[in-house]
Amino acid sequence: MTISLAQTSDMLDPSVRRVGEKLACLCGGCKNSVGSCPMLGCHYATPMRERIRTGLASGQSDQQIVDAVVKEQGIQALVTPPAEGFNILAWIMPFIMIALGLLAVAFFIKRMSAKRAAASAPDIPDEVLDRYHDQIEKETSKLD
Question: 89, 69, 87: which is closest to 25 by C-alpha?
Fold first, then answer.
């Protein structure tokens, strides 16, 4: 397989990279965007870069090109899902999970410290404590 000069220049063209950064490379071999796919001759990114270049040359805006690709390929063609509808969960769920994790840790620490406090202070009747206190007073008075 030979790589043409046009294919490598598409990778360097800033306008193609700008639009390509909004689209995911769906080749299955990488997790990059079309604009940053490092594979020379990628069966998905190379034709998509050419499509972006011809779209820009014909006067289409960046968003028109992206919208046309999403219309054909679906929402998975985008690098990041739009923050609307059900997709908003992709943006919110990490924060919810972090908050739940912090609550679980706080609950665990509170529960363990309550058990430790209960174990360190046994219930001793006051009469027994008074007897020991009197015994300590007698013995310390002998030391003087």
Answer: 69
Position of tokens 């598409």?
10
Beta carbons within 10 angstroms of residue 13's beta carbon: 16
What is the rounded distance in angstroms from the CA atom of residue 27 to the CA atom of residue 8? Answer: 18
Same domain, 20 and 55: yes
Do 20 and 76 belong to one domain?
yes
Q: What is the mean pLDDT of each run of 10 residues along the chain (144 residues)?
A: 50 83 87 86 89 92 91 87 75 92 95 73 78 90 79
The CA distance from 125 to 133, in Å, is: 13
Number of compact structural domains in the chain? 2
- pTM comes to 0.55
CATH number of the domain that 38 lies in? 1.10.8.640
Q: Which residues have C-beta within 8 Å of that of residue 85, sequence separation ≥ 6?
A: none
Cα separation, 52 vs 67, whole angstroms: 12
Write out the residue range of the structural domain in which residue 40 sits. Answer: 5-80
Question: For position 11, what pLDDT does the model report?
Answer: 57
Give the whole-angstrom CA distance, residue 83 versus residue 91.
7
